[in-house]
Write a structure and sequence with these properties.
Length: 555
């Protein structure tokens, strides 16, 4: 990648600040207005709530049992948000919003010397406005922290390799970032970045860099100093059950066997990545073509490109082999694509290497077709699949309209304007999603409304909660207090035992079709009251909340 100094330092940093504030506003918009999304957000939130109830921020529990899914760092991030804004959607998510904006700032500033100030700014703009950023950086999940720290670890190592004058500080930052990534998500925080670095050095025939210039003798102790104490602490408190369970269930089993129905073919990410990077993925062919054209000289003459390709391919291939697949698993592979796109679009803007009009029209036509597909799906498919939601035709309009307007600017030769139009279209989609779609979907997530009903009925008095032939973590988070247990009986005898041994009344949530059967099976000395009925998004059926209490005889 050619380094082009076209912006003064002051102007570059001013634009970085604007980009940071813009990303912060975009990610924060309506982030706290809706209830949590099952299953990951309430799993994390409930574990934090139980930490508060037990005054223990080392050992994560969920519904009273050890939760080995994630290490501690994301809980601590959410802890800070909750202290500021309360145990609500905004308090739980604001850490991810802030981390997302910091990632955009770091990505822009750290790539300036690698690819040039103009391409770096475009890189940050692309990262802030892709479709997947609007999802991941407004969710109470560990992914934003992992994205930030993995990117820091790899970009810092690349800067150390490229620029000897900043080698020591960049290497130390790389090891520290890997440690924090490990504290957030576990072994992948250092295993995959380490594998990427090794693959790159092997390709360059320079593996000895690891111990000769890579400060391994100092980096490893720093890594252990930052990452190991919590793993030891939680191991001691749980007699090593957490550490063993995390290694076996959350890592090895997830990689070797499909979990929670998240499966897909080997080429799964070849489909999800272009969708996740909309609207900018329409330019990926133009951005990647130069790499193919210089493939014979790539490894020896273009170390930055070689490192970025190693980063992209190793991460995607690693998770393509995994039995469990989710779009979020490869978000950490996006930064190289952001940089390739940023460089190519900057070349087009400056006239250094214009994009062919035929290719531009083809790319914009593809975006228009994506938009129209969303319009058709929102018009004809969504109302059939989720009748209470109605039509979502408007979700396709930002892409379709911005593509048409951009074509007009291409015809007039206005490069800057068609780029601005696509940026506005990406922001407009976020506005539509959060202003119109999210409130409509929120109504179809009844757990928060059920929790409110319970609080109105109980007014601080004791009660119990249970779920019958249905379960979503959201119900436990919104209906329970502190570390209250959600009971999940499968037989009527178990339900009667719960009623006998726990505080009354019992609030029982179940599919509405099961209500007549439950009413018939319960004894006559119990009062069964329906207090809430709602369609549920996840199971596509109505749910009912019952209030079951003992009949009291006045004298």
């Amino acid at each position: 990648m050619a380094l082009k100094q076209t912006l003064s330092n002051s102007r570059f940093y001013f634009l970085c600040g604007l980009l940071f504030l813009g990303a912060l506003a975009l990610f924060a918009y309506h982030s706290g207005s809706g209830s949590l999304w099952d299953i990951d957000e309430p799993n994390n939130a409930q574990a934090l709530k139980e930490m508060f109830a037990r005054h223990n921020f080392v050992v994560p529990l969920f519904n009273g049992t050890l939760r080995v899914a994630k290490p501690a760092l994301n809980y601590w991030l959410m802890w800070g948000g909750v202290e500021l804004f309360g145990m609500n959607s905004w308090g739980l998510r604001m850490g991810s919003v802030l981390v997302g904006a910091l990632f955009i700032l770091y990505l822009t500033m750290s790539t300036r010397r690698l690819i040039g100030p103009g391409p770096a700014l475009l890189t940050g703009l692309i990262a802030a406005t892709i479709l997947h950023s609007q999802i991941i950086f407004r969710a109470a999940v560990p992914d934003p922290l992992l994205i930030l720290f993995v990117s820091m670890s790899l970009i810092s190592y690349l800067r150390a390799y490229q620029f000897p004058d900043e080698r020591t500080i960049s290497i130390w930052l790389s090891y520290a970032a890997m440690a924090l990534a490990t504290l957030d998500e576990g072994p992948i925080g250092f295993l995959i970045p380490g594998l990427i670095i090794v693959v790159f050095l092997l390709l360059r025939g320079n593996l000895s860099y690891l111990w000769k210039e890579g400060r391994l003798q100092w980096g490893l102790p720093l890594f252990l100093l930052l990452s190991l104490p919590w793993y030891v602490a939680v191991g001691v408190e749980t007699h090593w059950r957490w550490d063993l369970g995390f290694l076996l269930r959350a890592n090895i089993s997830r990689y070797n066997a499909e979990m929670q129905g998240h499966r897909g073919p080997f080429f799964y990410y070849l489909i999800t990545i272009p969708l996740a990077l909309l609207p900018w993925s329409i330019f990926l062919p133009q951005a990647l073509l130069p790499l193919w054209q210089k493939r014979r000289q790539l490894i020896q003459d273009h170390p930055v490109d070689t490192f970025l390709i190693s980063w992209l391919l190793v991460w995607v291939i690693f998770f393509s082999i995994s039995a469990t697949k989710l779009p979020n698993y490869v978000w950490e592979a996006y930064p190289p694509l952001f940089m390739f796109l940023g460089v190519r679009l900057h070349q087009a803007l400056t006239g250094e290497k214009p994009l062919q009009r035929s290719g531009l029209y083809g790319s914009l036509l593809a975006l228009f077709l994506v938009g129209m597909t969303l319009v058709m799906a929102g018009t004809f498919i969504v109302p059939v699949k989720i009748p209470p939601l109605g039509s979502l035709y408007y979700l396709g309009l930002p892409y379709a309209l911005s593509a048409l307007i951009a074509m007009l600017w291409v015809w007039k030769g206005q490069i800057g304007r068609w780029l601005s139009t696509l940026t506005i279209g990406a922001a407009a989609l976020t506005f539509c999603l959060m202003t119109y779609t999210e409130p409509a979907l929120n109504i179809l997530k009844p757990s928060a409304f059920m929790g409110e009903k319970i609080r109105q009925y109980q007014d601080g008095k004791p009660y119990s909660i249970a779920a019958w032939h249905w379960f979503q973590p959201n119900f436990l988070f919104y209906a329970g207090r502190g570390n209250m247990i959600l009971h999940r009986p499968k037989q009527i005898s178990e339900l009667l035992t719960i009623l006998h041994h726990n505080p009354a009344p019992l609030y029982l949530v179940l599919p509405s079709r099961e209500v007549p059967n439950i009413r018939q099976l319960l004894p006559d000395n119990l009062t069964v009251q329906t207090i809430y009925v709602s369609y549920e998004l996840y199971n596509h059926e109505n749910l009912t909340l019952l209030r079951i209490s003992r009949i009291t005889h006045s004298t």
